[in-house]
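Note to self: the last two entries modelled the partners one at a time, which told us nothing about the interface. This time every component goes in together.
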Amino acid sequence: MYIKSIADLQVGEKGTIKEFQNEEISLKLLEMGCLPNAEVEVTQKAPFGDPICIRVADYQLSLRRREAHTVLVQ
Amino acid sequence: MKVALLGNPNAGKTSIFNYLTGMNQKVGNFPGVTIEKKVGTCHLPNQQKVSITDLPGTYSLYPKSLEEEVVLEVLLDKEHPEHPDLLVVVVDASNLKRNLLLFTQLHDLGIPTILVFNLIDAAKKAGLHFDKEVLEKAFNTTIVFTNARTEEGLATLEQQLTSPKDHRPTQSLWSSDDVTPALLKEVQEKYKLKNTYWALLLIHHFEKLSFLSEENKNSLERLSLQHGFKSLPAQSKETVQRYELINEITTNSIKKKEGDGSEVVLNKELDILFLHPVGGYLIFFSILFLMFQAIYTIADYPIQWIEQLFAWVGTSLNEQLPDTPLTDLFTDGILAGIGGVVVFVPQIAILFGIIAILEETGYMTRVMLLMDKLMQKFGLNGRSVVPLISGIACAIPAIMSARNIDNWKERFITIMVTPLMSCSARLPIYTVIIGLVIPKQQIAGIFDLRGLVLMGLYLLGLAMALIVAFVFKFIVKAKGKSYFIMELPNYRIPRWKNVGMTMYEKSKTFVWEAGKIIVLISVVLWILAYYSPDGSRTQIADEVKKDNPSLSTDELANKIASVQLEQSYAGHLGRVIEPVVAPLGYDWRIGIALITSFAAREVFVGTMATIYSIGSEDELTVTQHLARAKDPVTGEPMYTLALGASLLIFYAFAMQCMSTLAVVQKETKSWKYPILQFVYMTVLAYVAAWATYNVLS
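The predicted structure of the combined assembly is written out below.
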C-alpha cells in the first residue's frame, strides 16, 4: 500500500498515522496525542510551507517539515 | 498546607491561581534555577490559610524542557520546600484527552488530587456533555467543573480544598505490570516508597534529578542495567496505554452532540489571515508599530502628572524645610531619584499589558510560526520570538523564557542577542534624549515624529540582534537536535483580569527592584556632587564672587553652582574618564552618568537629574534641565542632535545591566559567556556611538 508522510499532505488533506521513524520525535508526538491510527488533517502551512499546522484529537499542533517527514500516514 | 496547581499550558491555570490568591502573590524563583515561581496565599471558607504554587505548564511527567523538569523535581522530592500536600490538576474540558494524560500520571503518584474541568463553557458550546459521577468513579478522583472567566465553580473548588484527605487516590489508574515489576519492587524497598509509579519515575529520570546524590544515581543506574530497563520504549508504551485507558473511560462518560463548529471555522479563517505570506507579516509589524505609538501617546498624560507632582512636592518641601544640606539631600538626591523611577511606570505598564494581550489571545504562537523559517536562517528558532519580544520589556525574564527552546545552539544564540533588544530600562533614556533633540512634529498628519524615532531605535536593536545572531550561527557548534512541536491554542478574548495582574506585578517589580538601586546611587551621587576635596561650598562660592565682581545676582548664582559641581568629588571623577568618552562627544557630566549607570542603565536619567538639579533653586524636570545646559566653549545648547544621537546609539547597544549578566551566567552555567557578551556589546556600542557622533557633527 502506498505510504506517505505528513509532510506530503496538502492543506485540507487527511491521513491516519501508521508509523514513526524517529523514536525521540515520536515520544513528544505521542504525548501530544498523535497516536498510531489517529486521524490527522493538515490545516494550514506557514509562509514558505514550513512549519506545518495539523489538527489531531480535536486541537491544533504545529511541527516543522523535517519532523513531519518522520511520521508516515495512509 | 501546600497546594500545587498543575496542568497543560493554556488550560487556564493562571486564571484559577489569580482567583484563589487575589493580590496575595509573590513572584520568585525556584531555588537554584531561574524558573519563575508564583506562590500565593488563599483563605479557605473554614478560615484556614493555604499556600498555593502555580507550577509551570507541563504536558507529561516525562520532561522535554527545563521548565517541565522543575515540576518533576518538586513532585518527586519530598524534602522540596514546595512539595505539595494536595494537587489541583487543571484540564481544558474542550481538549480533554491530551489534558488527561498528565492527570492520570499525577493521579498515580498517590498524592491527594482534585481534577478541575476548566473552560467548561467552551466544551459545552462544542457539544460536549459530561457525566460527572461516572467520570469521578472511573478516574478515582474528585472533579470540579469551572469556568475561570466567569468564576463559575471556583467557590466549590475552594470548598474542596478544605478536606485534602478525602481526595487521596485509592488505586492506580495505569498498571506498571508490563515493566519489570522486580526492578520496581527493588527500588521501592530501597527508597521506602509506597508508590510503584513514583519508583518508576525515579528509574526513568534519575540522571536529571538534582536532589538525588551521586551515590543514589549510581545505584539506580546499576539496578536499571541489571534488569535491562529501556527508558524510551517503556515511555512510549506507557503513553499509548494511558491514552487507551482515557479513550475507554471518555467514550462511556462523555457524549458529543455535533457542535455548530463555528469556533473551528473562525479559527481557520483567523489563521489564514495571520499566517498569510504577505498579510501575516504586515499585520505583525503593524501591531508592533501601534504598540510603540501607544507607549508614546497614551502614556504621555500620566507621565506629565507624575512629573508635575514630583516637581511640586520638591519645591514645596524646599520652601517649608530649613535650608540645610539634609533638605538638599532629600529633595535633590532621594526625591529626584524616586521621581526618575516612578515616571516610567505608565510606559512599562502599557508595554507589559500589550505583550500579555498578545499571549492571552493566542496570537503570539502564530508569530512564532510566522517567524520560524526566517529565524532559522539567523541561527535562531521560532520560539526565539518570545524572548526577543519580551526583551523589549526586560532582558531578565526574556532570557529565562529562552528555556523553552530545546536546542542548545539556538537557545545560546537567543540568550546572547536578547539584551540587544531595547528593554524598558532604556526607555527612560530614549524618552529624555528624544524629547531633547527631536522636535515635536506630526508626520503625514497622524504619526508623532518622536514616536517614529523611538520605533526606529527598537528596530535598530532588533536588526543588530539578528546580525549578531547570524555571526554566532557560524561560530557556535551545534549540539543536539531542534524540535518545533507546539500546541496552537484557539484564539480567544484576553482575560482582562490576567492582563491587569501582569501589568500590576511587573510595574511593582520594576519600581522595587530598579528603585532600590536608583535611590541608593542617587544618595551616593548627591554626596559626591555636593562635597568637594578643594574646600567647603561656601569657600568655593566666596572665591567665585571675588573673581567675578561684575556679574548680576542670577548669573553669579549659576556660575557658583557650576563651579561647585566642577570642583566636587563627582566633578573630579568625571574629569578622569572624560578623555575616554570625549570622542563620542560626551563631557564629564555624561561621564559620571555613564559610570553610575554601569550596573543598571536606568540609573542614567536619575543621575542626570541629580547632577543638574544640584544648586538650582527651582525643581525642573530632567528634560528642562538638560535643555538649559550650554556648551562651555561655544555657549550654544549643549545637547545637539549629534550628541543626542550618539547617546541613543550607545545605550541601544551597551550591556549596562549587572542583573542580566548574572542571569546569563546562571542560565549558561559559565562565566565565559556573560564576559563575552559584555565585551562584544560594549565594543559595539562605543564604535557605533563614535561613528554616529562624527557623522552628524
